[in-house]
Amino acid sequence: MVSQHRTIELSLAEQAGWLNEGVSGCSVASSLDMLYSSGRLAHGVPESLGGSGGTLLSAVEEIATVSEQCLTSGFVFWCQRTFIEYLISSSNRWLHLQILPKILRAQCSGAIVIEDVLSAAPVHASLEADTVTLEGFLPWVSNLQPKNFFVVVTAKTDDGKTLIVAVPSKAKGIQRGDDLQLLGLQASWTSTLHLNKVRLPRQWIISENADLFLSQIRPKLTLMQCALSLGITRRSLQETLQSTDGDNEEALINRLRYNFFTLTQLEAQIWKLGSLQNLDSSKREVLELRVALTRSALDSVWLELEAKGTNAYLKPSGTARRLREVAFLPVMAPTLLQVEQELQKTGNIISGLGASVFK
């Protein structure tokens, strides 16, 4: 008897190509529904807040498992789960009681503006006694289910105070653009967002000390982001292994062994970091892991293409889809280049675990 999780994985795999291409009538809403019904969205969320408990590692593994089948679904899973992480990391009880249950049940989609991690806040905020007013333009936001989303934004006031605010799609003055035309992950509800004097009660504020809040939550978001690369790397290496035979084994085996060895090292690092209660002292390790896993995913999918040959270059093939999917990982914000620049500020990026990956 096929388990519920396996049934869901088969369903995700079946629609992966359609979601990557953005085929009309195929929506990631069904993916989010399946993630909720299987309990995956609740992993790593405290039971007291409606989750199933466990460590962050359990959430990372769930995102990776989904990404093995469909990176579009894995990516919106990451978006939804990171929005959840913002809410559970906040001390705002109103958000815990009124908004978190809707996101956990996938009744609405949750988006964050990850560009804020390494750049200045693009949104301006005006604080009054009982309200906050937001003004700005966001050129790239994902998991914006049309007319049914919440988005986390970082906004700065005139006096230099930086806030983190949850914004509902039903707020007056918010305008979602058309879906951006992407190389892959077309069904990921990725669009622009205009905030035109969006006025909200202050109960929508997640934190009034964004710098401190973000410094504590960024490593968690990045570790969960690593799960996307982890999932596609696992799947791609298995595909390559299955395509290895007596004719091509001699040419492929050394590279394949090296990629599997690298993956084993990276998985061990994920398990170590994902089991920690506090990642504050491991921020650099998490960023290095993000770089190493992205590089591993790119190399693994390229090796898969070589192993499978011309059939893999046919557009409907799984390999061709993974080529378009994996191309997203270096540009996913913060981009690979931004992460490397951040690492170079504090020393040589090629150190420790990363050294074996970048040789």
How would you explain this protein's 3D organization?
This protein has 359 residues and is of the alpha+beta class. It folds into three domains: 4-104, Orthogonal Bundle (Butyryl-Coa Dehydrogenase, subunit A, domain 1), CATH 1.10.540; 110-210, Butyryl-CoA Dehydrogenase, subunit A, domain 2 (Beta Barrel), CATH 2.40.110; 217-358, Up-down Bundle (Butyryl-CoA Dehydrogenase, subunit A, domain 3), CATH 1.20.140.10. It is built from twelve helices and eight strands. The protein has helices spanning 4-21, 29-37, 56-69, 71-89, 93-98, 100-104, 210-242, 249-274, 283-308, 318-326, 336-344, 353-358, and strands spanning 109-112, 123-127, 131-141, 149-156, 162-168, 174-176, 191-201, 205-207. Strands 1, 2, 3, 4, 5, 6, 7 and 8 form an eight-stranded mixed sheet that branches. A hairpin with a 3-residue loop joins strand 2 (123-127) and strand 3. Helix 3 (56-69) packs antiparallel against helix 4 and helix 8 packs antiparallel against helix 9 (283-308). The longest helix has 33 residues, at 210-242. The protein is globular.
